[in-house]
Inverse folding.
């Protein structure tokens, strides 16, 4: 079904919530302006500490955990969201199609007990406050074992002990987590690429660029100096599904919401991208709240400050009532307070050669125990 673009005369209404400070910082990272220049001395200190840390692992003074099965890390070289979780889900499916039996490990950023040394198995019904919103989404969408722990090596050991059939670990985030040895590194870039090319906090880079990579995926133009990384690279197409899903699992076509007032809410790194995608589906945003990444959407007082009251009354059937839309990542926290909210999934499209190349790299680097390919 072809979705017509929204009328140009109906832009999203300004949010009543203040724009997250993180969004203003990421804007500054796109140019070498006064703020970025002022932060350069701190950037040099950050770069020096990072270089020292890498040297400690390179010389063996710090030891990395080597899992008995191959490890693929899906991460990014920039701060902020780049769409790693959808790529992780896509990769899991691609590896399964090649005969692998993957498990996913993660630190579970934003969870309440992130300092708990014990690993936690993530199930589709887990509390996002305990396991993190992104690992919960992966567990629900993938159906593979998912484990979180403050140390990714702890999560890896727990996953392999509980699931001896697992023959590959996919680490969601952690490209700079050198304490976990890896066989394949995948970096994901959003439309901003490498920004101004400076390291934190003067720019978005977490480490020097260019750096060696196995695979790069990019949602916008190809990042500068990508060829110098030696990575196989493919463009990444991101789009919203043509439906929203409720807490009860029912799907509602976004086309049916055209002409209805929509209150959009997103607690992700780049919420404006979510709002723009909703408009591209022909929806008119009466209000849009751009919230900090991993915001506490299960806090009634916090949501009340946004004008969202705890209620169990669905609004989808009331033609004049605003429809509350959120990202799929935010949904399971928001549903605890506002069960009438609808979540819009994010979908990614990548050339099939991406999964085939990842499979080839794993087989090449772990020839002793390749998986049995499905018929």
């Amino acid at each position: 079904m072809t979705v017509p673009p929204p009328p140009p005369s109906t832009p999203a209404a300004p949010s009543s919530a203040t724009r997250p400070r993180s969004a203003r910082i990421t804007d500054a990272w796109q140019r070498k302006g006064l703020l970025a220049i002022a932060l350069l001395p701190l950037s040099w200190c950050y770069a020096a500490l990072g270089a020292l840390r890498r040297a400690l692992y390179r010389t063996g003074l710090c030891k990395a955990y080597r899992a008995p099965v191959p490890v693929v890390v899906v991460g990014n070289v920039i701060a902020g969201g780049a769409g790693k979780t959808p790529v992780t889900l896509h990769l899991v499916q691609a590896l399964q199609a090649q005969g692998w039996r993957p498990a996913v490990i993660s630190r579970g950023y934003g969870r309440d007990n992130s300092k708990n040394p014990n690993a936690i198995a993530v199930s589709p019904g887990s509390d996002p406050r305990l396991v993190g919103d992104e690992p919960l989404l992966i567990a629900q969408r993938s159906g593979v074992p998912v484990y979180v722990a403050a140390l990714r090596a702890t999560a890896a050991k727990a996953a392999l002990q509980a699931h001896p059939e697992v023959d590959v670990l996919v680490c969601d985030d952690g490209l700079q987590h050198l304490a976990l040895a890896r066989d394949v590194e995948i970096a994901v870039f959003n439309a901003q690429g490498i920004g101004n090319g400076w390291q934190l906090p003067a720019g978005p880079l977490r480490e020097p660029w260019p750096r060696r990579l196995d695979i790069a995926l990019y949602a916008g133009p190809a990042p500068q100096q990508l060829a110098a990384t030696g990575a196989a690279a493919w463009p990444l197409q991101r789009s919203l599904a043509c439906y929203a899903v409720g807490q009860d699992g029912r799907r509602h076509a976004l086309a049916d919401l055209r002409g209805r007032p929509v209150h959009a809410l997103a607690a992700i790194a780049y919420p404006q991208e979510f709002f723009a995608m909703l408009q591209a589906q022909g929806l008119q945003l009466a209000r849009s709240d751009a919230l900090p990444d991993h915001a506490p959407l299960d806090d009634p007082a916090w949501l009340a400050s946004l004008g969202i009251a705890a209620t169990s009354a669905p609004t989808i059937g009331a033609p004049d009532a605003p429809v509350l839309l959120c990202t799929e990542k935010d949904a399971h926290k928001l549903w605890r307070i506002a069960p009438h909210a609808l979540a819009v999934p994010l979908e990614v499209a990548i050339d099939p050669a991406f999964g085939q190349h990842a499979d080839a790299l794993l087989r090449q680097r772990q020839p002793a125990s390749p998986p049995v390919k499905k018929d």
About this structure: Confidence is low (pLDDT under 50) at residues 1-18. The longest helix spans residues 40-58. DSSP finds eleven helices and 16 strands in the chain. The radius of gyration is 21 Å.
